[in-house]
Amino acid sequence: MDKSKVILCRCEDISLDELSQKMEEGYTTFEDLKRILRVGMGPCQANTCAHLIQKELAQFLNKDMSEVSVHKVRPLTLGVTLNQLANGDQNED
Amino acid sequence: MKTNVLIIGGGISGLSIAYNLAIRGVQDIVVVDKSYFCGGDTGRCGAGVRQQWATKTNCMLAKRSIDFFEKAKDILGYEGNLEFKQEGYLILASSEKEAAQFKQNVALQNECGIPSRVVSKKEALQIVPHLNPEAFISATFCPTDGHLNPFKMSEAYMLAAKRLGVSFHFYEEVLDIDKEGDRITRVITNKATYEVNQVVNAAGGYSHEVGLLAGIDIPVYSEKHEILATEPVAKMQGPMVMSFSHNIYCQQVPHGAFLMGRSDPDVPHDHDIESSWQFLEAMAKTVTHILPPLGQLRVVRQWAGHYNMSLDRQPILGGVAEVSNLYLACGFSGHGFMFAPITGEIVADIMCGLTPFMDVSELSSERFKEKQDFIIEKSVV
Ligand SMILES: Cc1cc2nc3c(=O)[nH]c(=O)nc-3n(C[C@H](O)[C@H](O)[C@H](O)COP(=O)(O)OP(=O)(O)OC[C@H]3O[C@@H](n4cnc5c(N)ncnc54)[C@H](O)[C@@H]3O)c2cc1C
Hints:
In chain A, about 40% of the residues lie in helices and about 10% in strands. Chain A has a two-stranded antiparallel sheet with strand order 1-2. Chain B is globular and about 60 Å long. The site of flavin-adenine dinucleotide has 40 residues of chain B, from helix 1, strand 12, strand 16 and helix 8.
């Protein structure tokens, strides 16, 4: 398997190869990896990559997946435009 | 465990101090941080770097820091990309009063060697064409202000410091500090006890609490500041756009996303950093008024961090009268990222008994004891 062709984070275009390299450098929590690689910061907010990276971390650290925590879920759940937000109160009674 | 220097806090301030001590030849430095890498306010900030300030002290600190950022990649030997962008800050004046104040600020900035200037509405609209012309009357612009990626800048300092022998311990929290007379003898964490010669309090939003452990009451408090990021789009805005009266800062980072924030004047002084819908609504109203086309962008994420506020909105750097081997780097009042290079330089100089490049009595916590009529920095969002 060519690790550089396996894309883990589609929003930020991060490959398994890049992830492995950063784990080797000592960034071994999701929060670390998020800051260094931007995984989980794109439009899907880690909905796609979180469990993939969790699995890779678990393997790397020789831990159970349940012991590896992932990202903090931040608002918003879905992208909302600034116009919708600015005018939102006009739809309320 | 014996340690020469223990630095509490591995944010950008602690990192820069560690690096600066190490290049001055100081050995045996340990940095402890209760969180993960960039878990404090450094990992939460807008990471704008500007020199357009209203007090001489802040102008001098900012100018020297920008001089460093321009060469940081080489000086620190960083292989990654700091994403340093120097496309200026455009600061909007929306009243004659504000415009007059900005004219004075620019004169002071020019005196300090900062290349800022007053620009007409017409010129401002050339620099940022999508500005609402109704929202301001004139502006000031400094082309060498800009932005860096805060995670990369922090990593650059950390890797350089590691190469010089500094140790970093994340997930290690300082719980207690022992003193004999006016000296700190031991620092106790959840993992170890350190016998220390010198201690640095660079604990950001928690610097007041760490001060209390050492028996001092540092005149700082923390308050929540919120921020959001949009989806990335093709480049459309060079400079950071800022307005104090409209209460907004907004920039497009090299990655393509827009970052924007504003202050809540009624925010309590505490450690709450949860996101609120009130911010989202107020922010959206403000930005769609000042920069209307941004209304089409989707918000993908919001978060918050602390501003650690001092009484005059200028940092507190250096030693304290009550504890002879404790040094402070706190009270950055929302601009500690851009001051990090100079924070490290000044604190390391003081700790090594060297003479810093400027008179540091202005920065010492003692300034609040001597007088009540400080010069307060007003150019803050
Ligand atoms: C929304 C927002 C936007 C901002 N925008 C900008 C900007 O555009 N430009 C700018 O210059 N600044 C900006 N700032 C301010 C900037 O983030 C801070 O001034 C700066 O990051 C402070 O760095 P620091 O190292 O002093 O603090 P931090 O980065 O908070 O580091 C302090 C560290 O101390 C650790 N710590 C605390 N207590 C303990 C303990 N007991 N034991 C061990 N460790 C401990 C924490 O975990 C933390 O990592 C912004 C801040 C916010 C919140």
